[in-house]
Please model this.
Amino acid sequence: MPRAKLCEWPTLALIATASAAWMLLIGFYDDLGGWIVCPLAAILVTLQSSLQHEVLHGHPTRNPAFNEALVYCGFGLFIPYRRFKSLHLRHHNNDRLTDPYDDPESYYLAWRDWEDLPYFVKLMLTFNNTLFGRLLIGPAVSLTGFISSELRMAFAGDTAVVRAWAHHLAGVAGVLLFVTLVGGMPVWLYVLGIAYPGMSLLMLRTFAEHRAHENAEARSIIVEFCPVFSLLFLNNNLHVVHHAYPRAPWYHLPALYRSARAEWQRRNEGYVFSSYYDLLKRYLFKAKEPVPHPLKHRGADEAVS
Model:
């Protein structure tokens, strides 16, 4: 692994380029129209989400405050950066990956929670475990659970959560002022035509990112051939490599993978897809896994280890 640099210029350049492209697209909304601006801006929302993920892992500089300032105004609107950072770093406890209680990014439920759900909610969550469902309703399902949890913590007096949301709302205010005053775009169109699709596109990556497995290293995916999505997701398609080297910058992950391709596939026990198209063919309308964690015994209280 190369030593970390004082400034990682590829990441800094990509942040600047994505931000400038977003401002140009929104600024020329009246000239270009929604049919051009919305899909392209949604892609940039996804890219900025990937860059926020890069930033929370300590890139592109060694100054966390400066790094946060680079992505302070979240184009995606929905998730506070500081909450994303706190929860995602907890997610990087590889021994607890996919655990319904200990992994804040797990899509699994414990059996006891699953059995208490109304039938309609079970149907909805099962649909959400198909790729089509994840892209269609996944953002709404995730945001409902996330915001409910955040409100409970805020009302319970969690000052870190309150501060995170205060910073987030300040950044969102800047985004929406630019959207409305400079771009002349309705807020509803930005939310439904850009922010929501941007989060949906991100869920193509997270859909199969982890699986329930006894071996911790076998819980993270490898998606091999995806030149466009590799850039959009900043090589997190090679997710087992990222979990092994969470401080490695995105542009080092392909070389790390190529240098020991067979070993990586052995370590994750063949949890490999040739492309996202391969993933789509298998799971577009088929639930990838059950919603209750498959390695937990029905009614068990203990988490998977």
User: Anything to note?
Assistant: The beta strands are 222-223, 272-273. DSSP finds 15 helices and two strands in the chain.
